[in-house]
Amino acid sequence: MAFNFNWSPLTADAEFYSRARDLLTKALNKSPKPPIIVDDILVSEFNLGTVPPDLEILEIGDLAEDRFRGIFKMTYAGDAYLTLKTRVQANPLNTYLFSKPEFTSPQPLAAASGLTIPLSITLSEIKLSAFIILVFSKQKGLTLVFRNDPLESLKVSSTFDSIQFVRDYLQRTIEQQLRNLMMDELPAIIHRLSLQLWCPDQANKGVETPKEETDEEGVNPLSSPPLDPVDANGNVLDPSAISEISLNGGGETQSLFSQKNLLRLAALTDSHRTLSLFTPGIRDVVFRAWSGCADRNDVATPSVSSPSRVRTNSYTGTTGTTYTFSDTGSTLHGSISSRPTLTSVNSSMGLSVGGNPRSRPGRKKKNRVVNLRKTKSEAVTPESQSEAGTSTPTSVNVPLSEPLFDNSIPEADELQDDHFTGDHFTPQTLVPDVGENPPTLEELTSALKDLKMFADATANSRRPSLEKGSPREAAGAAAQTSPDVLDQDWVMKMASEIARRVYDEKRSQQRGKWNEAEDAPPPAYEASPQSPCH
Amino acid sequence: MREFMDYVHSAFYEATGWRRDNSYAALNSTTDALLNFRTPRGLRLTLSALASPNFATSYQLGSVGVVDGSISYLFSSVPLRLLLTPQSENVPLPDLLRSYRPLTPVARRDDPSLRRPDDEDKTNESLLYGRLYLPRSQLEALLVRRLSPALQAQFSAVSGQHLRDGGTALGLLQYDVGRYALEGLASTDGGLLGFRGVYNFGGDLSSKKHAQHSAASPAENGIGGGGNGDKERIYGRFSTGGEIYYGTLNKSGGISIGARFATLPDHKGTPLSATLTLNPLMGNIAASYAVMAGKDCSLATRMEFNIFSYESSWAVGMELWRKPFARLAVDGEVSDTDVPAKTSVTKSATPAERSFNAKLEWRLDEPEKVTEKKPGPKMNGSNAAKSKSEAEKDKEQEYAGVVKARLDQNLRLGVLWEGRVKSLLFSLGSGIDLKMMNKPFRTLGLEVQFSS
Predict the structure, then answer these.
(1) Range of the domain at A508
(2) Of A196-205, A430-439, A514-523, B268-277, which has the strongest mean pLDDT?
(3) One GO CC annotation, please (chain A) (predicted)?
């Protein structure tokens, strides 16, 4: 495998430098400036130089045509330079009095009078050494996070080089400012630039509607990583684990369900139901199909008994059109309820929420498995797909930790669901599940995700294929007993309810979650080669 | 608005005979008061009281978006009741609000023979002051102690969590012998050490004769109402000084020298004050000029120029005293006795009251009362007290309020209106940016103060 990193094409773009200058100027003036700088900081010259940084690949977590996740060690000692222009206060006594309480001020008469001097600062001989976590996906653009403080050394040359203390002060101040820039602002800048490059339709989303995003954060706390997560021992959590959360959590699933994809999916299902010859190609999706339903049930449960039938029927509707994504680890709420123990829930959910990515058992390549099969009565146990990650239909449908006979034991709520056999996604199937035992955050989150998926799917797929029969209509003939609109309303209501619960849960269980998810200590990339993950 | 605690603080200095303005730091105080006055922000209510002659309290509640407040206490070992009027309903407004303050006579400790008989120093007196800002939990403390007639120590400290190192402290040692005054200071913040001094000459300090003349002149002023003999001659005091600071921890420093000429209260012409300060390190030259253009009007200007960066700035300010509308007609005959009173000392009530009293009783002023400096003996003698309160009533009804305005080179306008409604002192101010005409009001505020 070989990677080809092009350094020069960045500079070939004529607009690149002006864009980068604008972004840098904005970023530098955003944070509150030290009192010595009395004017806006203007980036006047910016050049990336000709020497590319050295990249050492430490680990590649995910690789596909449209996405990439890896950890690099970067060292840079190139000839990039940056020239800033601003105006500074040259009187140290003036800056000394700034932000000091007036009560103990020595109140100098004129010794603190200001002298502002235009200043141009050139930052050169930048030496960087950093561990970079790089995540790229076509939908989300490029995300770059520094694991440590990247700035090793830097030469600040300014108009004040002859004055010792001013030079020292400038050096100190600028290094501090640059550290902030690297750690906080640069990832955001790169992300915005990449959005403009690869997905211009989403580029505006992040810029123009930031308020909606913040609202969304309130609803789905896992869509963005916590600011400074620590585990129970107080150790700072591994940033890669955090990026796992943010990427595998709600964020990606939400962005994955773009209008385009859903339209294609709808067309695909329609093509199966009709005799249409047109099958739209959906990239990076393995289509799984099986011939019958009886043999699958045999595989899943050795004894085809009526309790098992009851159980499967209880969530027939939800599995009618199942979007199962292995990396999201989304399990349907119905199956969660049928799990005998909470530990099995954690074993599957811990992967997606807080788990160390390398400690996953049997984790190979992520596949997005879309089950578009029209299933009337049989159940698809999605946890088998999400864990095995293979597309073979004959894989064990029940996790190994789960005893097989558990499926045949009817649970109380499932028996109750017997009356709603034909009905799909009735409140009774869900409400006891949520309220039965104290719902963990993972359950609620996944349930929320499923609901959102479901709602999105129904909303989007119904319109283009109304006359042909939507997948939901095809999912069960009995689905027509409940009107679609009502159903959808209920789903949305339920989603908001669960979102609220997730939020509450998150607030109360924030610590505990990290604790149980963090079995192995976070891998130390720089020091220990025998970290448990390898 | 001048805070109540500051008012009490200056009363303490007055009681102990300390000259607060004989310091290099106070060289610009007149023009600063006219050009750099603070405009209030938000709503602020202050409730103050001189609970006992030695103890003052003040509670403040403010709201600038969020509600905050402060509690402050002050203890003075000298009884202060005789020296200030704590009641906000009859405190003389010019005492509290006037920006243009004429020079006070220096305390001639270097030559006791030149001292005025009423000028006495009280040693071993101290003042303690503490203030707690509530939501921020910031604590201010001040200790002033008079060590000897010429020496005073001052220690102030601020403690707050948001400050670096949790707080700062400043120690200040002041030495004042009248002709010159020296100050040394040390601050914990950056290990700043400072030294500044001022030297006075001319005017009342030039010779023994002048000193005696100045001691006697208020009487002449009071009787004559402005003699025309030496009206042309400018009679004032020169003060020059310098300051130097050095931060031992951050290896930085500052230096400046300055000079001031200000007319003494005995000056018959227009009172004026002119200062020139120079910062040789930073190349900054500042000249300011303040003049009391009329009885009710003071003007000030300041020009600054930097010889290194060629940057310049200017500022103009004014202060206009306003009479109550109803009293405009009746005021005619009182005003002619008030003209010299206004042009004389801050304690202008004394000569004005005396001549008024003398007029009433058809006799001349008593000579021992002439030298009386302070309006202190308010309580002795029913006749004097009565006439005094009458005169005070006259005086306090003379002004209803003051309007202050300033403008600088960035076309930022500051407007302040201070006055009294019933027994409440109010201060209404705004900062206006004339460059942004679509949204000119940068700040807006109202302060209400009640004290008893």
Answers:
(1) 239-517
(2) B268-277
(3) ERMES complex
